[in-house]
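FAQ: What does a ligand-bound record look like?

Like this one, built around pyridoxal-5'-phosphate:
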Amino acid sequence: MSARQPLHPGALLTIDLGAICDNWRALKARLAAADCAAVVKADAYGLGALKVAPALYRAGCRHFFVAHVDEAIALRPALHPDATVYVLHGPLPGAEPEFVVHDLVPVLNSLPQLTAWRELACKLDRQLPAILQVDTGMARLGLSPQELDVVTDDREQLRGLDLRFVMSHLASAEDQANPANRAQLERFRAALARLPVTRASLANSSGVFLGADYHFDLARPGAALYGVAPVAGAPNPMRPVIRLQGRVIQTRIIEAGTPVGYGHSWIATRHSRIATVAVGYADGYLRSLSNRGYVQFDVIRLPVVGKVSMDTILIDVTALGDDTIREGSLIDIAGPDLGVDELAAHAGTIGYEILTSLGNRYARAYLGG
Ligand SMILES: *Cc1c(COP(=O)(O)O)cnc(C)c1O
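The answer part, i.e. the structure of the complex:
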């Protein structure tokens, strides 16, 4: 998880823990009575779970979600015992005792997971904590309607379990006008009415913005904590969290007609100045940004020209004065004025993928927290 710091990095990644904590507080403020968890799976969306989660703990967060048990085992010692670490995937068959040993709470997604966890509780002769997930219209994780029938017809199914929450996950929450949201909410309410649990959790980042009906007792935001816009097509209320600055390693002047980069996919139409920056697709600068991406120097937007290579991108810096960009200059690849959502739009993806693709060749600096 904690990548070693490169001694001679081609780029600097600055992660603002204070902004992440402010984003958590802003989400919590929208929730009124409900509590606010933090989803820190995939190494806190690429930003470093061992830095992010303790900072959020100090801000008041007590519920942390990861996807894999290994992520949880790595995170658990970094948090105070009064924080709860939940594992979204639940236990793989045979891995149940690991959850007990490491004080982790599984999300139980299927009857086999529920059965194995109940049998362990019975064997240990103690109540074991769990979240039960029901699928309300995503067909990904959680009890199917048929499995839910089995559980509600036979209350013995939940014996020995300390059910903390019943949860579900929204498929289209960022699209506020989508009727699928309301349909999932209705199915979730119907499932809750049949289960003996009073506490519930439905909203991800975008779900927080769907209104109080979706808040229940615990929201589970991830992306919005890290500055990704939670509502499609609306201004982003979250603070930006990352700044990525790439280093220029060479500049050159080329004449009109000179082809640039792999496959000669860009040809200069004028006398041009080209800068080579030491960030490529191996660093998470997606190849789909070839001839489509922008970087920024001061307030000037500069286009990526030619194909993104594994270790480099080429930038047309003709718009700047001759000596402005030199070997060693830093150019903003992402930052407050060039957000992850904009970068994602240029790349034809979502901010989540931009963040989780960030490579481990960057020098990382953490601010605040
Ligand atoms: C990843 C995930 C979240 C967080 O989603 P965001 O859209 O990043 O806020 C919440 N709940 C579940 C089940 C998830 O898998």
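Follow-up question: can I read anything off the structure? Yes, for example: The pocket of pyridoxal-5'-phosphate is lined by residues 39, 41, 88, 169, 204-206, 220-224 (CB under 6 Å).
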